Amino acid sequence: MASNNQQAEHEEARRPIAQPFVDSSALDSLDADFNATPQFIGALTELVYAQIQNSAHDLDLFSKHAGRNVITTDDVMLLTRRNEALEALLGQELDRMRAADEPNKKRTRPAGTMPKAKPKQ
């Protein structure tokens, strides 16, 4: 029984991954000399799902190694270290997001840097 539940959850998790491939391949095959078979789409879905699982696991390990419980952009950039093109693309996007967020932030002191009170004389 638990096996059937796990299999159903497994299939449910993959459905959103497969849908773009199904939609895209149907449109692309009209203009190309190939057809994406259901077996190909299934294999591609499995590949993408495995990559997502591996990436999520690596991100979790990176954050834990840094002593954090939350995954940050630093962890994502560390994940891209072996793919220079992806690292450059994500770095540019991160810079753009930080620049767009800059005007919205108020200037505050970093946490834990309250000015020390002067001793009374």
Automatic annotation (TrEMBL):
Gene3D superfamilies: Histone, subunit A. GO terms for biological process: DNA repair; replication fork processing; resolution of meiotic recombination intermediates. SUPFAM superfamilies: Histone-fold (SSF47113). Keywords: DNA damage, DNA repair, DNA-binding. It holds the Pfam family CENP-S. Residues 95-105 have a biased composition (Basic and acidic residues). Transmembrane segments: none annotated. Coiled coil: none annotated. GO terms for cellular component: FANCM-MHF complex. It comes from the Eukaryota. This is Uncharacterized protein. It comes from Pseudopithomyces chartarum.
